[in-house]
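User: Please run a holo structure prediction.
Assistant: Happy to. Please share the sequence and the ligand.
User: Here you go; the ligand is iron/sulfur cluster.
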Amino acid sequence: MLDLSIFEDKEFAQRILISIKRESDKIGREVKLMHVCGTHEDTVTRSGIRSLLPENVKIMSGPGCPVCITPAEDVARMIAIMRKAREEGEDIILTTFGDMYKIPTAVGSFADLRSQGFDVRIVYSIYDSYKIALENDKLVVHFSPGFETTTAPAAGILEEAIDEERDNFKIYSVHRLTPPAVEVLVKQGTVFDGLIAPGHVSVIIGVKGWEHISKEYGVPQVVAGFEPIDFLMGILMLLRQIRKGEAKVENEYTRVVRYEGNVEAQRSIERIFNVVDAKWRALGVFPKSGLELKKEFSDYEIRSFYDVEVPKMPEVEKGCICGAVLRGLALPTQCPLFGKVCTPRNPVGPCMVSYEGTCQIFYKYGSLL
Amino acid sequence: MCLAVPAKVVEIKGNIAIVDFGGVRREARIDFLRDVKIGDYVIVHTGFAIEKMDEKAALESLKAWEEIMSVLEE
Ligand code: SF4
């Protein structure tokens, strides 16, 4: 039996906190640490880590929510494709993840589309979506957001669809890469002293997938897991690097993450996708941060079959500061709408809709802040 | 959101495994894990097992941490 009880050991956590205090005293100035992962934010907020840390150690939350950064016009375009297909006599089955389903845009959400009688289904994985295609003659389209961890399964299923020449399964790819986003944040002036790199993105890309960021921008990094102990240890390892003036990538999550990553998954992603410049909702276009299907596989991308116009629309509602939250420049509590006008039941912006959105996570664990 | 808990592989059929999250069983594709065996613990993300959990590495890293901390505590 696997014994990981140490990762829940309170006494061990206490010892790490004492070491964190020592290190932060030695550094003696304010230190900003950033993470870029919704699950890390969940760990931090659920266990009240911000309140346990020394005053001069701040945790910022970056663009760690793939659903939040999916451009509104892509949702709008998918909605328009569904309508056009119906006009032309084809009823598409649209699948996507539960939080993507509810994301609001100026022209509505996928949930609204369903209430208008379209076949929209929530799935837990692209594999479930593919299984619907296997059982159906209708065209199944998976609206497919996600970072590397979710892109690998998408590539795996597409490889199977391609090899089996299945022609009733396609995706709408809004996949994004995380390291290019971190690079843009650094270049655009989000200031932080160290990065907690996302554990499960790193399962795919490996420790090596982050090395260029330490080398080129002098950012210390630690790949960390998702137990509170993992995150605290990540902080400690970062502080130690900062105190010593080092900038390298260390691996705290050695039980799962390898230096070279999952090479099979990387090969699959590379076979299916090309890296392109891509827009991030409320953040702008990031160079080489998006994935689109290679030309030879364009029959598996729904946009190859439908050319629809979508109106220009605002990225987020007036007053919503999701952009600043996603850049790690503000925490949700700095948004005047947070908890008053904007709640998970009545979300104003995408960061309140997704389970991975910093605003929703703050709201959910509000009592611990 | 990423599932942090590992699942135990209880059955393998081709590229599909049945995995057990402490009582809850689910299907997971194992396309990206070449040498996964029954009894292994795996991290599953959106229906795919993406990596095996390496208990030995976990214990080794723990030892390394203990060392780091005892240096800091001196
Ligand atoms: S609380 Fe709501 S309105 Fe404010 S930034 Fe978050 S999502 Fe936007």
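Residues A 320-322, 325, 332, 335, 337-338, 342, 348-349, 351-352, 359 surround iron/sulfur cluster (CB under 6 Å).
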